[in-house]
Amino acid sequence: QIAKLRREQYGASTERTRRLLEQxxxxxxxxxxxxxxxxxxxxAAAQKTASVTPFERKKPVRKPFPxxxxxxxxxxxxPCACPACGSSRLxxxxxxxxxxLEVIPRSWKVIQTVREKVACRDCEQITQPPAPFHVVPRxxxxxxxxxxxxxxxxxxxxxxxxxxDRFAREGVPLSTSTLADQVGAAAFALMPLYRRIEAHVLAAxxxxxxxxxxxxxxxxxTDTARLWVYVRDDRPFAGADPPAALFHYSRDRRGEHPRAxxxxxxxxxxxxxxxxxxxxxxxxxxxxxxIEAGCFAxxxxxxxxxxxxxxxxxxxxxxxxxxxxxxxxxxxxxxxDALFDVERAINGKDADERLAVRRELSAPLxxxxxxxxxxxxxxxxxxxxxxxxxxxxxxxxxxFTRFLDDGRVCLTNNAAERALRCVPLxxxxxxxxxxxxxxxxxxxxxxxxxxxxxxxxxxxxxxADVLDRVAGHPVGRLDDLLPWNWQ
Length: 487
Prior knowledge:
Layout: H1 2-10, H2 14-48, E1 118-119, E2 126-127, H3 143-155, H4 160-169, H5 176-189, H6 191-201, E3 206-218, E4 221-232, E5 244-250, H7 256-261, E6 268-270, E7 291-293, H8 296-307, H9 309-318, H10 327-346, H11 351-377, H12 385-394, H13 397-400, H14 414-420, H15 422-430, H16 436-454, H17 459-469
Parallel strand pairs: 3-6, 6-7
Antiparallel strand pairs: 1-2, 3-4, 4-5
Helix pairs in contact: 3-16, 3-17, 6-16, 8-10, 8-12, 10-11, 11-12, 16-17
């Protein structure tokens, strides 16, 4: 128990581990660069000596550059005469092409839209074409600039002050407050698309739900607010409807927030054991109760953390690699992994086929798992970590076995966790939201960007085109601008 508490208090979290891995990858890049530099130095030294054979490092085979990139041919002319005999009778045998990837630095330009003004000589009426549309009234920012601003802030986790510094280095000084005005206006212009995505998500028969913390500025401190996500993804059971992610912001984690988000919705909700969802599952709920589906990834994680927590603590203190593990926790992980093996084979098949395979292969495993968990629980102290992990499953057994009755249900809630990953990844970069309005604006833009990613659409290119077209687009054809319909 002490080792488990130490892990909870001092252990590396998922986000911290990811940052450490990124730092290690940066170190690996430096080592690769050093090795390449040493290769060139060894090659130069080998040319000066005849007795030393240079060391040759095996390099990975490089993939060809993407075919859609433009090619610029730089031809090195062949000699006009043979260097051996001086003859000018040369015939071309072929050519060798060496491709080098190059980047053109970002270029800025000012587009001047000229509106000519004319006067009628007969009636003296002055006529002039209307001014072009700007997201901000009388604005100055073009749609591509606004799309870059939004995507860098919410998709690449670059706060506006850092973007302003980069723009200034490129010779375009813009204040942070000016950029913030553009972000607010662009988010307001995109609200109709957010509402269409919200309606699409809430029309689903099954949703993934999850939430994560987001610091928000308060008087002299930061409060811990929440970003909620509801993901519609029917691809695991061969559904024809496109995937989408819907984000909401709230100042706290009270259960009234998910109840408000899903007030008019009923169906299957895949989520963790957060108590705020309990009223959604009530039989007397109006319009109808939400059906709970458990997440085996959450259940497995509790056993996985206990499988070698003692061994990890001992290895850390002694510097050793080997250590003891909890055999019960390890066996629980192995039994749950057997269920995942079945799911991998049927992922993407239609609901009926998935259900038939589950009843044939997964149902016996579930029966054995329930009997085994019940037997192990009788041997453990009620306060032991393993007992708590087992009770987490047994007390929600109907939710965990829901996938045996409905082929649409997934084994995990990983779809929601993947959609939420953008928040903890960028949290250390932007530190906190400036206000509740800022959190709500973040939820809107996260919805747009993550939905575009789920549909394999470049978010920045899509936002640029939508911001350019949304003003003159007919309201009745607004769905044409959604990521899964966008051309």
